[in-house]
Every structure is written in structure tokens, then in C-alpha cells.
Amino acid sequence: MSPRSSDAPQRVIDAAAQMLARVGLNATSIREVTKLADAPLGSTYHHFPGGKQELLARATTMAGDKVEALLIELLKGGAVQGLQQFLAMWRERLLRTGFRAGCPVLAAAVEEPVEALPSQPRAAAADVFARWQGHLAEAFVADGHAPAEATGLASLVIASVEGAVAMSRALQDITPFDQVAAQLLKAAAPRA
What confidence tens digit (pLDDT) does each residue in 110-134 have? Predict the structure, then answer.
């Protein structure tokens, strides 16, 4: 087996996450994902016997894991510094992609699958958001916020960043993102 074939499942997951970020859950097709991944269509069904639902759930989890690892690293310098860097990363992504790529986790969370099945991608997104919230809340507590306030602030950060990304994509303008980022940094200031 060539190295190219052996990494096909990971390439397919990566491609699915890219498509989720750009076109959303229902517009992401296995055929287009395999084409983007340069992977054989037949083997995709072998590696993902649960079909599109399984593939998109795994792509959502993988994308969430990558952001979680980055978030953990960024928060080592403190909640506000980590949040500043996290916001800068999202701002750069929006501008670099010409507002074409959003968050694959949000896409998995907000779209109902066309199939009349419970949504595996949405369940994966719920897990990812909970993990992100936990890391942010811990950092806010370390900066002096009360635990309940820290949890609420973590939810505010996640919801605001996701909403700001969506607004900026819709308007093709970074202004909403910058406005939200400024407010989040004020809200996240350490407590004495």
C-alpha cells in the first residue's frame, strides 16, 4: 500500500472539515470530499461505514480537537492574552480566506441533516463546544473571575466569536468581528 493510500482516511476527514467550514453540512457531499482529498470514493465508504453522518462527525471532532489544542496552548499565557491571540487567529483566517471559511463546528451545530436521523455532527459539535467552554472557564477563574461568572463568560466568548465570524462572512466585512473582539476583551479583563 502506498503512503498516499494509507493516509486517505485522514485526508478525507481534513477535506470534510474544509468543506464544512466553507459550504456547510448539507452541501458537503462525500463525492466532493473525496475529490478534494484525492481519495478513492469506494474506500471512503469502507473507512466510514456510517456514511456522511459518521464522516462529518469525525471531521467536526477533528476540527474541534485542533482548535482545543491551540486554545490550551494560547491560554497558558493567561485568559486575556490567550483570548487576544485566539481572536487574532480567527480574524486572520477570515481575511486570508476572503470571508469564505467559517467554523466547521458551527456548521455542524446549526444545520439539520437532510436525512431523518439524529445528527451525529451536531452531537460532536456539542461535545466540542463544551470542551472549549471548560478550558476558557478555567482560564477565567485563574484570572480571578468567580466560577459561575467564568462559565458564563466562556459561553459568551464562544457564542460571540462564532456569531462574529458568521456576520463578517455574510457582510464580507471584518468590522463586526473587530467590534465583538473589542467587547470580549473588555469583558474578559482580570478581576482584582
Answer: 987 776 567 899 999 999 999 999 9
